[in-house]
């Protein structure tokens, strides 16, 4: 495989890693969830690391599944091009039979911003990429829907939705939730309380390319390839809904700091 275009490369790598995960799921089955999660994380990480080393040997990589030492390698902080990958986002859902809300994330950061990315949703047989960003819905549906974590929904989002007249939709995986915003299944994704750069880099690259809003929940920019990869909160939404959500979050936090 020789792929000159980074957008296409992100798409092909995420898609192929995802196909391998589908096969692995079928082969191992769901009896031992821990074993399936670990095998999925490792197989996808190895595939992506080997492919990037072969196809983009001069670039740095930040992967969720790298060792702590590899993640802390200071070379990535002076590199001009860094691939930020989450080999299996929504690991919990991957290990649950029948669930399709898990993803493979491949993003490229260059000199301060995300420039390419892909989110494969292998069990939904689709990959969203910056090569051909999805077309956003033109109008915000009413009542609007906010995707939240199935297992760790932030406390304040229930109150936010109640005040603004929105509905909550629990979905696994940050990539699957942001994809749901871009394809019109929900209108927003709000998360707080903990997350890392690899959980959002690729889906945010696609969201921004599609024209969606993406920021921290206080409206400040999401920044990637930092020394500390923690990026604990995020808001992705259709652009017309963002001012309402940001103002609602600001009001809530003013009243309950
Ligand atoms: N409070 C928290 N602290 C750390 N990571 C969190 C988190 N809440 C969610 N995440 C991570 O964000 C991703 C999406 O989570 P969720 O499905 O709950 O929305 C998951 O990535 P992984 O599956 O790659 O570990 C999960 O680990
Ligand atoms: Mg993740």
UniProtKB/TrEMBL annotation:
Reactions mediated catalytically: adenosine 3',5'-bisphosphate + H2O = AMP + phosphate; a myo-inositol phosphate + H2O = myo-inositol + phosphate
Molecular-function GO term, any one? 3'(2'),5'-bisphosphate nucleotidase activity
Keyword terms:
Hydrolase, Magnesium, Metal-binding
Q: Kindly provide the name given to this protein in its UniProt entry.
A: inositol-phosphate phosphatase
Q: Which PROSITE patterns match?
A: IMP_1, IMP_2
Listed Pfam families: Inositol_P
InterPro entries listed in its UniProt record: CysQ/Inositol_MonoPase (IPR050725), Inositol_monoP_metal-BS (IPR020583), Inositol_monophosphatase-like (IPR000760), Inositol_monophosphatase_CS (IPR020550)
Under Enzyme Commission nomenclature, its number is 3.1.3.25
Q: Which SUPFAM superfamilies match?
A: Carbohydrate phosphatase (SSF56655)
Recorded source organism is: Microbispora maris
